Amino acid sequence: METRSEMTNARRCAVALAGNPNVGKSTVFNALTGMRQHTGNWPGKTVSVARGACRASRHALEVIDTPGTYSLIAHSAEEETARNFICFGAPDAAIVVCDATCLERNLNLALQTMEVCPRVLICVNLMDEARKRGIHVDLDALSRALGAPVVGTAARSRSTLAPLVDTLDALLDVPARECRRVPYPAPLEAALAALEPTLRAALGGRLSARWLALRLLENDGALLGEAQEYLGADMRALPEVRAALEQARAALDAAGLTGDKLRDAVVSGLTGEAGRVCACAAVPTGQGYGPRDRRLDRLLTSRRTGYPIMLLMLAAVFYITISGANYPSELLMSAFGRVEEALRAALGALGAPAWLRGALVEGIWRVLSWVVAVMLPPMAIFFPLFALLEDSGYLPRVAYMLDRPLKRCRACGKQCLTMCMGLGCNAAGVVGCRIIDSSRERLIAILTNSLMPCNGRFPTLILLIGTFFTALPGPLGSVWAAICLTLLIAVSVAATLVASALLSRTLLKGLPSSFVLELPPYRRPQFAQAIARALMDRIVFVLGRAAAVAAPAGLFIWLMANVAPGGVSLMSRMAGALDPLARLMGLDGVILSAFILGFPANEIVLPLAVMAYLEQGSVSALSGAHAVRELLAANGWTWLTALNTMLFSLMHWPCSTTLLTISRETGSLRWTAAALALPTAMGMAVCMLTTLLMGPFVR
Amino acid sequence: MKGCSLLSDLQPGQRATVRQLTTEGGMRRRLMDIGLREGAAVECVGRSPWGDPVAYLICGALIALRREDCAGIWIGPTDGRRSADGDAKRND
Predict the structure, then answer these.
(1) Which residue of A has its CA nearest to B28?
(2) How far is residue A162 CA from its own chain's centroid?
C-alpha cells in the first residue's frame, strides 16, 4: 500500500492517447479516467484535447485524449492537434489504440508514434467485436514483432482495463530508450545515415534524431515550424546541419526521390514494416465490416430507402421527445406554479415589500421555473436518443447521403456532421467544424451552424407547434407535432444549403475540396450507459444554465417591466420602438425584444416574451401550456405570428456562447460579424416574405 | 494505363486491385494513409442515393469517396492471392 507521502511525491505522468478514428479511443479514455466524456464513434467527436486523471499503483497519470487520425501527417486542424501533442507535447508515454478487427491499417499510426515516442503501449481494443467475427489476435506474437507492450481490451467492460493500467505502470518505470526504427528504402536510408549523426549531436536527446531527419527531408513547413517552437531553435540554421541536409538531399535527388516520390518511399517503409509485423504475428487481414453491416447499409443508404428512413428516424426521435416530455413538463409546471403561490404567500407573511416580492417571484422564480419545466424534459430525452444514434454508427451514413447536395453548394459533406452537433448545441457544432480540412469550407460551416436549431430552441418550437398547430388530441397530436418539427428541421437544412451556396459564390468563393469519410461498422449502442451519461449531462447542464442565465434574465425583464420613468415601463418603450419593424416581419415588438434580450441563451426567449405579456397584465398566472395559448391569443397572436416566431427562431443571430466560440475559432472580427448578420438577414427576409404571402389568409 | 480502369468505374459488388495512384500532393498521402496503395484490394460496396459518393471496402474498413477524388486511382482485375499486406518490394 502506498503511503500518502509517496503518492503526493509521485509526479503526474502525461500519457497521450492516440489512434485511428472509430477505434473506441474515447471509450478507453472514459474507462481510464472515469470522466463523463461525450463519446462518439465518428471522426471529429473528440475535437479538442480532453484531459483526465487516472491512478495507477505506482504512478499518478494524466491521460490526454487526442483527435483520431490515420497518420501523423496532418490534413486538418484537428489532425494537427493530435500530431502536435504526440510529437511535441513530450508525453511520458503514448497509448496507441487499435481496432482488433482492422489491425494492419492501425499499425501505420502505431509505427509512426513509436518512431517519435520512446515509450509506446499498444492497446488492441474491440477484442469483443473481433471474437464475435471469429478474428483471433495473438497479442504476445504481436508484441514481439512490434517491440512494444501490447494489451488487449474491450473497453466497454471496465475489467479489461486493469491489465492496461498495470502494463502502463510497468512501462513508465522503464527508462526511456531509443525510439523504434522503421526500415526505409535504401536511398532514403543512405540519406538518413548522412544526416542523423549531426542532428543527434545538435538535439541532445530532446527529440528523436532519426525522426527529425526524416521530417527535414520531407520538408513539411507547418510541422517544422512546430518543431522550431518546441526546440527553441531552427535546426536548419546550424551550419553543420545545413551542410549535412544538403548532402542528404543531393543523394535523394540523384536517386530520384523527390516530392511525391519521397513521400511514397516513406509510406512504403511504414506499410512494409506493418505488413511484416502482421505476417510475423499471424494477424488476420481486416474483416471489420461484415455481412450484417452490408445488409444494414443496403437498407439505410440505398437510393430508394435511404432518405425516407432518415426522415423517419428524425421524426421518430422527435415523436419520442415530444410525447415523452409532455407529461413531465405539465407536472413540473403545475408543481412550480404551486411553489410560486407559496413563495408569494411566504414573502407576504414576512412583510417583504411589493417590489421585492415582484422581483423574486414574478421575475426570478417564474423564468427559472419555466426554463426547468419546459426545457428540461425535452432536452433530457432528445440528448440520450441522439447519443444512441451516434453510438450505433448511423450518423456518418447521414453525412454520406447528404454529401452530394452539400457539394453542389460547394461545401463539405462533413458539414452535415457539424450540423448534427449543432442540433445539440451550436457552440459545440462550431468547435466541431475543425474536422473540416479546407479552411474555406470550415468557415462556411461555422457561419451557417446557427441555422440549425439547438436544444435550447426545441422546446420553444415544440410549445408553439403544440399550441397553434395541433387541434388533434392525445397521441395523434404528438405524431403531428413530430412531423411538424421534422419539417422545420428540413427548412433549416434547406436554409443551410442556400446560405452555404450563397457564401461560396460571394464572400467565400472557391471550389469544393476532397471528402474522405470512414463509415464505421454498426455497433450495438450500450443503452444503459449512453442514456445515463447523456441524461446526467443534460440535467446538470440545464440546471446550471437556468441558474446562470435564466434567473438573472428573469430579474432583468421584471425590472424592464416595472421600472417606469415617465410612467411608461422600459419594456413598453423597447417593444414600442421595435414594433413597426416587427410588424413587417409578422411579429410584434414584445417578441422581437424577447429575441434581442434572449441573446445570452436561446431557451429564455419564449419565457421572456410570456413574462413581458404577463407584466402587461392580461393573465395573472400560468397553470399550464393551454394557459400560454390563451395568453398569446389575448395579445394578438395568430397562427401566422406563431409561424413567423418559429421561422425567426430558426434563423436569427447566434447566442452569446456561440458567438464567443465563433470569434475564438475564426480569430476574426469580420467573420464574427458575418456570423451575426447572415442568419439575421435570412430570418428577417423569410419572415417578411411569409407575412406578405400569408397575411391575406389570416382573418 | 493499358488494361486498367478508374476506381470510379467499379460497380457495386465488384472487386479490384489498385494498380497505380496518379493523384498528387496531400490527397495522395491521405489516400495512401487509408489503405489505397499499389497492390491493395478494393471492393465497391454501394453508392449513396445520388450516386456519389461511393462506399469502398479498403483494408477492412468502409470508406466513402467522391468521384472526382477517385480520378487518380487506377485499378485492374484482382489477382488470386489477397494482397492486403503492403508490398515494400516496390522501392522507387
Answers:
(1) A260
(2) 29
Question: In chain A, pLDDT over 70 holds for what percent of residues?
Answer: 93
Burial class of residue A493 (count of CB atoms within 10 Å of its CB; 0-12, 13-18, 19+): middle
Q: Phi/psi of residue A206, each to 5°?
A: -75, -25
For residue A546, give the C-alpha cell. 437556468
pLDDT value of position A11: 66
Q: With a CB-CB cutoff of 8 Å, which residues 26-85 of chain B face chain A? A: 26-35, 37, 45-53, 55, 57, 59-66, 69, 82, 84-85
Question: Does A70 sit within 8 Å of B34, measured CB to CB?
Answer: yes
- Model ipTM value: 0.84
Distance CA A9, CA A15 (A): 18
C-alpha cell at A641: 405570428
- Which of B48, B78, B82, B83 has the highest number of chain A CBs within 10 A, making it the mutation to test binding with A? B48
Full strand arrangement of the beta sheet holding A516-519:
A516-519, B61-65, B54-58, B41-47, B15-21, B73-76, B5-6
Q: What CA–CA distance (Å, rounded) separates B89 from B92? A: 9
Q: Which band of pLDDT confidence, cut at 50, 70 and 90, is reported for residue A682?
A: very high
Cα dihedral A619, A622, A623, A624 in deg (nearest 10): 110
What are the residues whose beta carbons fall under 8 Å from the beta carbon of A625, sequence distance 6 or more?
A: A329, A330, A333, A463, A466, A467
CA distance B6 to B10: 7
Q: Is the Cβ pair B90, A293 closer than 8 Å?
A: no
Burial class of residue A683 in the structure, from the number of CB atoms within 10 Å of its CB (0-12 exposed, 13-18 middle, 19+ buried): buried
State the smallest CA–CA distance between residue A520 and chain B in angstroms: 7
CA–CA separation, A440 vs A417, rounded Å? 17
In this complex, how many residue pairs, one in chain A and one in chain B, have their CB atoms less than 8 Å apart? 160
Give dist(CA A144, CA A279) in Å, integer.
12
Predicted pLDDT at A608? 83
DSSP secondary-structure letter at A655?
P
Are residues A560 and A574 in contact, defined by beta-carbon separation less than 8 angstroms?
Answer: yes
Contact B53 A268 (CB under 8 A): no
Residues of chain B with Cβ-Cβ distance to A289 below 8 Å are: 45, 57, 60-62
Q: Distance (Å) from the C-alpha of residue A220 to the closest C-alpha of chain B?
A: 11
pTM score, two decimals? 0.81
Cell numbers given for B30: 491521405
* A279 contacts in chain B (CB < 8 Å): 85
Q: Sorting pLDDT into bands at 50, 70 and 90, what band is A623?
A: low
Helix (H) or strand (E) holding B16: strand B15-21
Cis peptide, bond prior to residue B53, ω within 30 of zero: yes
Give chain A positions within 8 Å (CB) of B22. Answer: none
Q: Do B32 and A267 touch (CB under 8 A)?
A: yes
More confident residue, A356 or A592: A592
Determine whether the interchain pair B85/A275 forms a contact, defined as Cβ–Cβ distance below 8 Å: yes
The yes-or-no verdict on residue A42 having pLDDT over 80 is no
Q: What is the pLDDT of residue A7?
A: 43
Q: Of the candidates B30, B59, B69, which has its C-beta nearest A75's C-beta?
A: B30
Q: How far apart are CA A9 and CA B55, in angstroms?
A: 53
Sign of CA dihedral A380, A313, A448, A516: positive
Rounded to whole angstroms, what are the CA distances from B65 to A69, A105, B57? 17, 18, 11
Residue with the bigger pLDDT between A648 and A180: it is A648
Best CA proximity match to A425, nearest among A599, A597, A608, A657: A657
Q: What mean pLDDT do residues A131-155 have?
A: 87
